[in-house]
Amino acid sequence: MWHRALLIFLLLPLICGPVQAEDRLIRIGVLSHRGSLATYETWSPTATYLGRVIQGHDFEVVPLDFSEVDPAVKFGQVDFILANPGIYVNLEVRYRISRIATLNNLVGQNTNNVFGGVIFTRRDRRDINTLEDIKGKSLMAVAASSLGGFQMSWREMHARGLDPYRDSSSFSFGGIHDEVVRAVRDGRVEVGMIRTDILERMAAAGQIKLADFKIINPKVNPGFLLSRSTRLYPEWPFSKVLHTSNELAQQVAIALLNMPKNHPAAQAGNYAGWTIPLDYQSVHDLFKELHLPPYEYMGRFTLADAMKKYWYWILVALVFLVFMLLMTTWVARLNRELKKAKLHLERQYELILNSVADGIIGVDLDGNTTFANRAMTQITGWSVADLIGRNQHEILHHTRADGTPHPAEQCPVYATCHDQIPRFVEDDIFWRKDGSSFPVEYSSTPIRDEQSKTVGSVVVFRDISDRKRISEEARQHQDDLAHVARLSTMGEMASGIAHEINQPLTAITANAQACIRMLESHSGETERIIDVMERIGSQASRAGEIIRHLRQFVKKEQPELSCIDINEVIKEVITLLRTEINRFDVSVRLELDGRIGEVMALHVQIDQVIMNLARNAIEAMADNQDRERLLHIATSSEADNYVRVTVTDTGPGLNPTVADELFNPFVTTKPNGMGLGLSISQGIIEAHKGRIFVEPAEGGGARFVFLLPTSREQ
């Protein structure tokens, strides 16, 4: 396609410019290998097409049989010639014609710009199956100058030591392809020679049945679906004769190359457009082998002839050989130096690999290990000999942490080899030679060759056992610290909670004594006694609820997530803070959205966060004298499946210089505070994949907000 675009680009100015040549009739000589009538029907639409595209000229088809082609070109009776490649090669040598396009032949739905010859006989001739069986049989070809109809087949016979003139019982020419086919069909000759596509075209026209014929010396090519007995040669060229102007030839060439495959002219000619001129050297080789014109006088060429004719080039070749000998010696020395440098680099490479504490392995596209460093063998227990050439996934990565098999198609290392995308895995496991596993983090990076083609990947991994142990100890320390903070909070709230519990106990005592007196007086006030007993039960339930919340808050909960209702947690915290709320005369306003859903969390830790924020808010409002003390707690749904909890107070607000450091350990605004409450709260929320931050509150005060993912997101 790019050749065609380039040709059009170069010739475009010639087409677009005004054509000053006078109008005249342009004659296209066409080899009439199937008869003059068929030639007119096939090629006249092409001539009409050229006349429409190229203004100022009319084009006419001139049918020529095999004997008329040479004189028509010799005496200038045609301006262009369309003939088989054999005739073209002779005309090219004798009269300097030049090809401007090559035909794309069409048979059925198949398009070819090459063709061959067909040697065939009748299907019922069981005695003719190979080329050797032709000996002594009657033969018919199209014409002595027919490339597809004789010369191609002759070359194949010549390669088997056969001569159609000498080894046949009779040898004749039919003049056109159709006549050869009919002669074989009717039994007038035993073997025929034609070009490819003739049998298929006649069968499509209903003139013959393909099943009646048998191909001798059949050849198969996946890209060429027609029956053939010979090798393939380029299709017919469209050529200009010497006297035709280059300007007109350029216009004709562009018109032919631009013809659509489905143009009516192409359909009439049973072809699929034209392509750029092909190489016809294979036709030259055929004529040289058979000593056919223009190579009929080609004799022996001795060494003395070569020395005499080509002494200059032989001298140049000798000088070149001496030069190449010197260059070869120099290149050999360079190769030795390069091998030494390569060996030195390989040793440096090995030293660098072995000096790295992380394990490193190379993996090819099949997942097999190509190299490994010393740290790899020390960490896993596998030796380099165990690893090289073996599948890394089956050795190191075959099983997940829970014991289930790890499919190879889900392995990140395989994925990197296939999509060339680097990957980093933070937490996975590898397996040692002794069958034990260890936690790792690793990266998989594609390896590319000089052409930037991926040839594998390099895996760098690190044993993170110590890091995970330290992380677990830090988490345990955080849990212990949070537990101590809860106990400290309860210590600070002890007197208030005791008072809160004492109230229902006092009421229970008073009601119990009243009930005893009524029973001793035998007054018979049964309903009143029942009412007193119900009040005793209610106060006992109240005291029990407070104690249950208290026990849940101070216990050291196991680190197991569960679905909890944030709204219920807030209500439990308010119950525990009721004494402080009453003592500081704080109003509580709860705006709890019942549609927010549950979250996956540790109940005690979320209790602690809300408790810390609520107590901080109450203590911040303790000194309010002229403003309402209001604790506002609200819940709502946030985008991306998050629950939003806000705790707002009407205190003096936060100092901007302190606000940025509130969540750091030991930072506090309380005179006797330790500065751990908000730091612990931040650690809890972030461990739950959430966020905690401060927002400005309307009308003063402070507003703390934390977000937690819902159970669906978790």
Could you characterize the architecture of this molecule?
The two termini are 57 Å apart. Helix content is 45%, strand content 21%. Strands 1, 2, 3, 4, 5, 13 and 14 form a 7-stranded mixed sheet that branches. A 5-stranded mixed sheet has the order 9-8-10-7-11. The chain is elongated. β18 (437-448) and β19 (454-463) form a beta hairpin. Mean pLDDT is 82; it is low at 1-23. It has 24 helices and 26 strands. α5 (147-159) packs across α11 (281-290) and α22 (603-620) packs antiparallel against α24. With 714 residues, the protein is of the alpha+beta class.
Most strands sheet: 7 strands, mixed
State the share of residues found in helices, binned by percent. 40-55%
| Number of helical elements | 24
Globally, the shape reads elongated
Give the end-to-end Cα distance, rounded to a whole number of Å: 57 Å
SSE-based structural type = alpha+beta
How much is the radius of gyration in Å?
A: 50 Å
Indicate the mean pLDDT.
82
Secondary structure tally: strands: 26
Unreliable residue stretches: 1-23
Beta-strand content bin: 15-25%
